[in-house]
Amino acid sequence: MAVEKDDFCIGKIYFRYGNFTTFIRWSGVERKKNVIFCVRDKKKKRGMHMRSKSFSIVGSNKARSITERTAGCIFMICGVFAILAVAVITLYMILKGAPALGKVGIAEILLGTVWAPTAAEPSFGILYIILTSIVGTMLAVLIGVPVGVLTAVFLAEAAPPRLAKAVRPAVELLAGIPSVVYGLVGILILNPLMYKLEMFVFKGSTTHQWTGGSNLLCAVLVLAVMILPTVINISESALRAVPKDYKMTSLALGATRIQTIFHVLLPSAKSGIATAVVLGVGRAIGEAMAICLVAGNSVNIPLPFNSVRFLTTAMVSEMSYSSGLHREVLFTIGLVLFVFIMIINLILSRVMKKGAEHGDK
Amino acid sequence: METNNNSLFVKRKRPTDMVLKVLIYFCAILSISLVIGIGGYVFVRGIKAINWQFLTTVPSSRKGTFGIAGNLVNTLYIIVITLLIATPLGIGAAIYLNEYAKPGKLVRAIEFTTETLSGIPSIIFGLFGMVFFGTTLGLSYSILTGALTLTLLILPLITRNTQEALRTVPDSYRSGALGIGATKWYMIRTILLPSAMPGILTGVILAIGRIVGESAALIFTAGSGYLLPKTVGGAFHKVLESGGTLTIEMYLRMSNAEYDYAFGIALVLLVIVMGINALTKVLTKRFDVTRMDERKKKKTGGNYAGK
């Protein structure tokens, strides 16, 4: 009996399989009927070994019925749906956002500083809006990440287990609170505080535009709170994933707990924390409803006490009454945001890949 | 060297350690007090607005009532329709990725796009939903448009959770079922899905949480209707009418500076979120495979070696 392509070997014996009924039969009574045993051919040794690796019980079902095939097909369609969705979204964002770039001019839109879409001579410069989103996100990350990472350190290392157990649901609650609720609390608590601060800082200033507390700083604080749960959760699991030996070794060498945390644990959890930062950036730059009412919503240079407008809030606040070219430019803003998010996604997958490689080593 | 450092048992105090330790505790306390502060504030302000009428009536100047019943029903509509579409799709995708697909370009593409979908902010989904479902497919502002938009939003959540759940099912279950002659689809239907059910359910519940809290994706797709359907036919037709969820209503009230009303809704939302969190906790605790092993270990005094 010659060895064929699909046969597999265990030790010195080759098996040939048909379908699952045969598979069972050879382990039962009629084992010799459908399965061929033969002694290994020395010449073909190497090739056969490679084939034996690809043997899989799951893959060997050849006599699939129609149901089987349909099931497989349907699952594949479900899988491909995600690709389809992203493709259609990308296509639509470009189709809707790009024409205005051509009509108004790329430089005028992206580098223009005057936003007056409904004026007699409309002007569609969104540079300040883009800058606001970037600056706002960066500030929010600068505040949110240290607080989040240190809270994660507290939960993973410093806190007694019981306290950590009580705090974790609280963090989950923070993650689950709808963004509008953050906005509401921001309006009623942060805005008055900011107004007082504004009065204090700009006392007697005649050039300052009073915002009544709705300013960039306020939005940044709301965003910082909103990215906290993401940062805490991911950094905490990254810290917990650091092998225990590292900590033990460091402590045994005489390092204090704090030294261990900052010189051993945090550096080893670096890629996880990087993931947390990137996700935090993604969440902050895409947030709309929470900051819509606290940021003041007029287009200005992103300075802490200026009333500002983000990419997201520009869309939310004007989409309902816009029309014509104005609306197209709003879609261009959407496209700009989309491009930012895509870049962040690429960075994220890069960071995660690096983290996985690091973990393998 | 100072003399007091000669002993092994005397710790050298490092000032930087103290500073950092204080910093860690400060940050932790800050985070915790944020949660308690926000929760407490919403509770105190919201409890005043909530009464039976608030929960069971719709705003009407003729009857002089104002309440959120219509928005509650809209939220339910959107949850049900979204889950009806997204759950099979998400589970199917996860099954394909975990059970059928061989590693290669397609799988990588699906995983990358799922990752991308979960990273796209909801406002972009809102824009896309408005243009694609609303204008191109002609559904305009309706609950269906909103639900279809949210389907895209929660798809990655369900896919990922189902994948995680399928991964925890031991391979021996699969080979066992196939070994005794089950076909693959039969094996998936009768062995895999039931064993992975808690994980899948967790995903679905998290998705409900996401839907309840979503606002930016809905404001341009589902609109802001707040009336209750009056007839049976109306209940079906409502799917094609505009309907604002709790969050949308809250946002609109907020922009009108009706803060008490908004806090009432906020409290309802918080209670829902807390309920959802508690439910997921119960589910994961109850069905976690690794924990079950631990429990067995405890019972047999640590001698349990099987795995």
Automatic annotation (TrEMBL), chain B:
Keyword Glycoprotein: no
Residues of the ABC transmembrane type-1 domain: 72-280
Gene3D superfamilies found in the cross-reference section: MetI-like (1.10.3720.10)
Subcellular location: Cell membrane
GO MF term (any one): phosphate transmembrane transporter activity
UniProt xrefs under InterPro entries: MetI-like, MetI-like_sf, Phosphate_PstA
Membrane-topology descriptor: Multi-pass membrane protein
Transmembrane segments: 22-44, 76-97, 109-133, 139-158, 191-212, 261-283
SUPFAM superfamilies found in the cross-reference section: MetI-like (SSF161098)
Main subcellular localisation: membrane
Keywords recorded for this protein, A-Z: Cell membrane, Membrane, Transmembrane, Transmembrane helix, Transport
Matching Pfam families: BPD_transp_1
Domain of life: Bacteria
GO biological process: phosphate ion transmembrane transport
One cellular-component annotation, GO: plasma membrane
Family under the similarity heading: Belongs to the binding-protein-dependent transport system permease family. CysTW subfamily.
Protein name, UniProt field: Phosphate transport system permease protein PstA
Gene (UniProt): pstA
